[in-house]
Amino acid sequence: MVQQNGEYALPIVIVLSAIFGAAIGSFLNVVIHRVPRRESIIRPRSRCPQCGALIGVRDNIPILSFLILRGRCRRCRSPIPFRYLLVEALTAILFVVAAMRAGLPLELAFDLAFIAAIVALIFIDAEHMLLPNAITYPGFIGALIARILVPQVGGSHLLASWPAWALSLFGGLIGAAFGGGLLWVLGWFWRRARGIEAMGLGDVKMMMMVGAYLGLARTAVALFLAFLIGAVVGVALLLRRRERDWQMMLPFGIFLGIGALVSLFFGEAMLAWYLSYFD
Question: Which one-letter DSSP state was computed for residue 80?
Fold first, then answer.
């Protein structure tokens, strides 16, 4: 009977996580649309931006409503941005992955909150080239709280004689200083050398949040992936343009977010694989 329960447990976890993730993704779409415009995320109710019609309950079912309506407003038939479906589906997938690797329930709750914040930042930066303080500041505080309540959530082992919560908190602060500090230093050097802004303070604050949650080692992985993916995408975009503009601005928060999510799930395994070559 235990084996049978175990066989049924995984599909149930997957389905519930996907439903919850899609619902949070629907909320994140509100955040992505309203926070950059300094609008309330609570009121008024969601409306069609073209005709102003209120979005009814039947048209507000994550993923399904978009597919049923074929990506158009029920009233005026104006196109609904594909981003709405993408955010809901992506959040659902990420929540499923997080749930399948979850440890303690509290750790899972913090992981889901971190994922939601990163998804929101990625899509806001893609649309507005902005990383709002309204997300990064609470995210940083929340990461430090997570460090205390779920000790060593980022895997810091610096001073074994310290209490677990203090060791974990210190590891988070080191990660924040490394993540945000490295970007700030790189931006400062680039500004002195080229006279242009290469790294905004929004990127710095985002990586302070990421570093506080992931700790030093996984933050290093996140940054490596962000620079690697950013470089590949940047070169690809330059090759597609007729005029080579080496000062082309990219929303780097997208790559930082991707690096952070990959490192959250696979950072420790990637580090172990890399370090195995030095054994």
Answer: P
Distance CA(119)–CA(176), nearest Å, equals 19
Q: CA separation (Å) from 191 to 86, 126, 181, 230?
A: 35, 23, 15, 19
- Residue 21 CA to residue 14 CA, distance in Å, equals 10
Asked if residue 92 lies in contact with residue 63, where contact means CB atoms within 8 angstroms, the answer is yes
Residues 154-199 have pLDDT tens digits of 444 446 677 888 889 999 999 999 999 999 998 888 777 766 666 6
Residue with tokens 């490596």: 224
| Encoded amino acid at 94, one letter | L
Cis peptide before 44 (omega within 30 of 0): yes
pTM: predicted TM-score of the whole model, two decimal places: 0.90
Helix (H) or strand (E) holding 164: helix 164-194
Contacts of 144 (CB under 8 A, 6+ apart): 169, 172, 173, 212
The maximal CA–CA distance of the chain, rounded, in angstroms, is 69
For residues 66 and 82, what is the distance between their CA atoms, to the nearest angstrom?
A: 9
Nearest-angstrom CA–CA distance, 263 and 255: 12
Q: What is the pLDDT of residues 55-79, one digit of tens each?
A: 888 888 999 999 998 889 888 888 9
